[in-house]
Amino acid sequence: MAYRILENPDLESALKTIKEGLMRNHLLIIIGECYIDYEGRSASKLGLGERIVIIKQDGAVLVHRPKGYSPVNWQPSTTTIEVWLRSGEGLSLLAARNRPCEYLRILFTKIFTIIEGVFHDSAEFVMYLSESEIRDIIFENPDLLEPGFKMLEKEKRIGQGAVDIYGLDSNNNHVLVEIKRVMGDREAVLQLYNYVENYRSGVENNVRGILLAPSFTPGALELLAKLKLEFKEIDLRKLRLLSQSSKKKPNSTLFEYMNEKGRD
Amino acid sequence: MAYRILENPDLESALKTIKEGLMRNHLLIIIGECYIDYEGRSASKLGLGERIVIIKQDGAVLVHRPKGYSPVNWQPSTTTIEVWLRSGEGLSLLAARNRPCEYLRILFTKIFTIIEGVFHDSAEFVMYLSESEIRDIIFENPDLLEPGFKMLEKEKRIGQGAVDIYGLDSNNNHVLVEIKRVMGDREAVLQLYNYVENYRSGVENNVRGILLAPSFTPGALELLAKLKLEFKEIDLRKLRLLSQSSKKKPNSTLFEYMNEKGRD
DNA sequence: ACATCTATATCGCCC
DNA sequence: GGGCGATGTAGATGT
Q: Would you call A27 and B66 a contact, using CB atoms and an 8 Å cutoff?
């Protein structure tokens, strides 16, 4: 990581550093005393105070006060940023964008520190419990679906696609299960419907279709009823805990758990 | 602002500084290379990368990557934070909370810079329009109040105080208008009532009283009815748009507008 | 269809 | 009733 720190710069040096940083699309952290003005879909004003201003490498701007988890003002990366000295007043920074037309203006009266540099971070952000993870957990725990269920096949090919789970219920009905990680909508229902209809045409037995999702849109519920398909809510949190505990025995405290987890 | 900067600290020094900062409820900005683990309502994992971690004075934790306006991970201020060295691996930071039970774990493999200090920021954050701005806009646009209204005076002194707007309706009734920037409550109604009663005693004509606010408490509505006063909801958003377009002819670019605004 | 982005408002919950 | 946190999603928009 290539970066530099400017401590207690005069405003001219600060201006120079910020301009260079902006030109090179570097990340800037500016710590200083400032006023803030925002106007756009809403509007706000903030008096003088010591704050952290972050300008990211894609132009996103954040203003953070010393407390609270959310920024007091911000501007997404669709921003053009200008910065200039306003003699006798301070250093003015304007982050503006057109759609929607909004501006964020920051007037620094003092700048304590500027950090300017390039951050390298190409790691992928992974949300746990992907659809396939959910499928695996359900497959390993058939009772989560319904008592006496017999899991037969994951990703069973049907027509062009593949249904997440194929199995038999306690009455030996064929069952196709489609899983969604997010709220089940009409589209998910139709997807399941296509599998069921396609599969039904090849067998004599009754074929059930079940949609599994953390929640369902009203439209999806309506369509499920109309198409005589079933649904079941899954609790992602419980699923996660289940997948953990199946891997190892539970710890008495969160911190113990954390420490163990750290040692993996 | 009292703060210090640690450049390229070894992990022991970093640990010491972070612990001190946490103990004193100081704000910490940690720039380093780290892994992130989150687990709670959802769960996520993020591989190695250079990031900014901010621990605020109330314990809120933010992790920012070099791009994007939103934090990749965070923890609100209801957090307890622990930090320790994990030999051969790095510096581990755990921010956990109970309701909902969630943890955020950061493992720093390198720490480039730490800023630790106290930020002073007691300024009030004001959203939307000020009461006087609202008053001015309404005054300039009488039809917003009601068709055919004639504006006569702003801040008309009545007794000890001053009512926001005084004017005549289309039937030449005297009208007193009290404006509130936030939800109108009983107190606002009483304020208006006092003006109306006070003013009424000096004139023969009918005197109307109108309370203007973005919304009203049930108690306020009840009291308004009882005191035979009127109310009208104002849409702050529309007002703001109106004030923008009426103030000036539109500028060809946002920057022109900004520069003009800056010279005020 | 898909991914990517954004929320500056509202709701709900805790105090 | 007020203040703060959630939306660690839902919807919207662009490709």
A: yes
In whole angstroms, give the CA distance from residue B1 to residue A39: 28
Q: Check residues B229 and A258 and name the one with the higher pLDDT.
A: B229
Nearest-CA neighbor of B73 among A55, A121, A5, A255? A121
Give chain B's residues under pLDDT 70: 128, 243-264
Residue B124 has its nearest CB partner, among A47, A77, A129, at: A47
- pLDDT, one tens digit per residue, over B197-230 is 999 988 888 999 999 987 777 788 888 999 999 9
What DSSP designation does A142 have? G
CA B132 to chain centre: 18
> Which member of A47, A51, A103 has the closest CB to residue B254?
A103
| Residues B36, B50: Cα–Cα separation, whole Å | 11
Pairing assessment for the beta strands A2-7 and A102-118 based on DSSP bridges: antiparallel
Between CA B168 and CA B43 the distance in angstroms is 62
pLDDT exceeds 50 at position A252:
no
Q: Model confidence over B134-160: pLDDT tens digits?
A: 888 889 889 989 999 999 999 999 988
Tokens at residue B140, please? 């300039």
Helix (H, G, I), strand (E, B) or coil at A85: strand
Disruptive mutation site among A42, A50, A74 for chain B (greatest number of B CBs within 10 Å): A50
The answer to whether residues A166 and A200 touch, using CB atoms and an 8 Å cutoff, is no
Give B-chain residues touching A60 at CB under 8 angstroms.
Answer: 67-69
- Whether A121 shows a pLDDT value over 60: the answer reads yes
A182 CB less than 7 Å from any atom of strand D:
yes
Tokens found for residue A62: 């954040």
A238–chain B Cβ distance below 8 A for any pair: no
Nearest to A38 by CA among A106, A87, A86, A93: A106
- Which of helix, strand or coil describes residue B173? coil
Please, are residues A40 and B96 in contact by the beta-carbon 8 Å criterion? Answer: no
**CA of B75, C1' of D6: distance in angstroms:** 12
Kindly report which listed range (A183-197, A232-246, B122-136) carries the lowest average pLDDT score.
A232-246
- Cβ–Cβ under 8 Å, residues B61 and B95: yes
Paired sense of beta strands A43-55 and A2-7, if any: unpaired
User: Are B3 and A112 inside 8 Å of each other by CB?
Assistant: yes
Single out the residue of A33, A31, A36, A35 nearest to residue A55, CA to CA.
A31
**Residues paired with residue B69 on neighbouring β-strands, in sequence order:** none
Check residue A241 and give its pLDDT. 75
Q: Are strands B61-64 and A27-39 parallel, antiparallel or unpaired?
A: unpaired
Cβ under 8 Å to A: B residues 15-74:
27, 29, 31, 33, 37, 39, 41-52, 54, 56-58, 60-62, 64-69, 72, 74
Q: Which of B50, B64, B86 sits opposite A1 (nearest CB)?
A: B50
